[in-house]
Amino acid sequence: MAKPQTIGSHSFGTQAAAVTFIQEVLYRHQLLKPINGADHEFLLDLLNKHPRKAEKIGSGVKYFTVEKAQGGTQCFYITRVDGSRSDFSFMKCLRG
User: Fold this and answer.
1) What is the pairing mode between strands 74-80 and 61-68?
2) Are 64 and 34 in contact (CB under 8 A)?
3) CA-to-CA distance for 60 and 63, rounded, in angstroms?
4) Alpha-helix runs per DSSP H in the chain
5) Which residues lie closer than 8 Å to 58 by C-beta, 6 or more apart?
6) How many other β-carbons are positioned within 10 Å of the β-carbon of residue 78?
7) Per residue in 1-57, pLDDT tens?
8) Which CATH architecture has domain 5-95?
9) Are 69 and 87 in contact (CB under 8 A)?
10) How far apart are CA 34 and CA 13, in angstroms?
11) How far is it, in rounded angstroms, from Cα 52 to Cα 8?
12) What SS3 state is found at 39?
C-alpha cells in the first residue's frame, strides 16, 4: 500500500512521489551555491523529519547546498550558523 508523506506544507500521495520532488530540488540547484527561498524552507521541513535532527541541525541551519558525495552522487549539505557542516540523507528523513 502507498505510504503518504507530508513535509511541511507539501503532501505527497506516496513516498515515491516525495522522492521525485526532493530529487527535483536536488538537481535544480548549482553545486556549492546556497539554496534559498521556498526550497530552503522545504529542506528545513524535511530535515525536521530526520531521526537525528538535533545532531544534524546543531547550532542552527545557516543554509543548504548541493554537493558531490563520495562516489560522485549529489547530496544535500547543511552549513550551520557556527560554520560546521554535515550532509544528510533525505531517505532517512522520509523513513523517520
Assistant:
1) antiparallel
2) yes
3) 9
4) 15-28, 37-47, 53-57, 90-95
5) 80, 82, 84, 86
6) 21
7) 678 999 999 999 999 999 999 999 999 999 999 999 999 999 999 999 999 999 999
8) Roll (3.10)
9) yes
10) 29
11) 18
12) helix
Alpha-carbon span 55 to 65, nearest angstrom: 18
pTM: 0.93
Q: Which residue in the block uniquely carries the three cell numbers 513516498?
A: 15
Burial of residue 44, with CB atoms counted within 10 A of its CB: 0-12 exposed, 13-18 middle, 19 or more buried: middle
Backbone angles phi, psi at 67, to 5 degrees: -140, 165
CA-to-CA distance for 16 and 13, rounded, in angstroms? 8
DSSP-derived secondary structure for 50-72: STTHHHHHTT-EEEEEEEEPTTS
Q: Where are the domains of the chain?
A: 5-95
